[in-house]
Specification:
The protein has about 375 residues and is an all-alpha fold. It contains 14 helices and no strands.
Length: about 375
Amino acid sequence: MLTQGAQPPATTSPETTPSQDAERKVRIVRVSPAGAATLAGAAVGALGLLWLVYERMLPFTGVLGFWVCWYVAFLLFYAAMAGLQWDRRDVVNKVVTVGLATGGILVILVVFGTDLYTLVRGAPSVFNVSFFTQSLAFADSQTPLYIGGVAHAAVGTLEQITIATLLSVPLAVATAVFLAEVGGAMARPVRIIVEAMTALPDIIAGLFVYALFILTLGMQKSGLAASLALAVTMMPIIARASEVVLRLVPGTLREASLALGSSQWRTAWNVVLPTARSGLATAIVLGMARGIGETAPVLIVSGVTREFNFNPVSGPQVSLPLFIWTYAHVEGVGNYIARGFGAGVALVIIVLLLFTLARKLGGTAPGQLTKRQRRQLARQGARV
């Protein structure tokens, strides 16, 4: 009961929740000051001790050996210093974390260092527009770099990898579907053959095409012969990667499709393959990236030419890897070296474009619909 002049008690509604009940973001500190100091101390201590032992006391030389020894000493120093502060479980966790992190950083540095070195060596030729629009028909080792380029090799690479992809992808994906969805008595022999082909030296594919198609069947050296050799190289790579991707598709999706009355092949075609679309695109691009940089398979079957050849079934047709090997390694004089490194830059650009295209075609996650598929579903829903 309220007395006269007393105020009713205040009530709080769900809309006026006190601020202390609101969700607050909790930031987890990954590196503490003690951890950072331990890391820096281990790095500096290992560097000083190794410089004294490696350079002054022992008869060792070489930059690579010095940094490899420093990295091992750094991990040992870090483990010893961490053992003085934390328990055994934390020490193992921190050492493994540092090892994995530094390994990832090292891989990134190697990749960027390789690309940067290639760009610097090929910069005199790359920054000429004619390098990407002309062939070497009227250029030699002494010709200025603004005359002649790698356009004919880029055309050969694109045509050969396109034909090789059209030949290898259907067979490789069909093999993966057989291994992941069908199985049976033949699954084990097929898997063994695919794994054996994965470890096969690349030049064996070129020798196979040379012996069967050129010597036996009379095919001339051409871009088509190079595409056949690249297809043999790409097929096991795509098949193995595609099988792994297909096995990641949840089994409940297959069970739901079969429960609705679909056959096995309809389930694989309409459920499994669309769900694994992004992974299959990645597998295909991995195979293309492997094939696009191969020199050994095409070395003896494609021939070398300094002019444009847009017909892959007639006459020699050079590719970018073969161009690099021929002019930067075999010739290796004058401006040929800069043109070879410039061809390496062009090859890196093509590979980056391929991976970008794969991300666009495959989507960002397994089972995610593309924009075109979402528009089709929206139109169908509007009709209903």
